[in-house]
Amino acid sequence: MQIPCPWCGVRDEYEFLCGGAAHIARPPLDADDRQWGEYLFFRDNPKGVHLERWRHVHGCGQWFNVARHTVTHEILSVYAATEPAPR
Length: 87
Description:
Elements: E1 2-5, E2 9-12, E3 17-21, H1 33-41, E4 49-55, E5 63-69, E6 75-80
Antiparallel strand pairs: 1-2, 3-4, 4-5, 5-6
């Protein structure tokens, strides 16, 4: 799989580290154990488009988000970590 880094261009997957699902909201500090458990251990595992965080470890070191189809591995969108999810 090749991933287009917004800063370095298209590179092979081995240069990157997947940081998991993007746009996960951290619960407030006074959240109960159930809320923290769900935040830490439960994630969606969709068959289809998934929004993920990636870091270009062996390149510029920047974090960014990728909209990727989990079946075909087609990358539909790449956007900055500070940008909202694409529609």
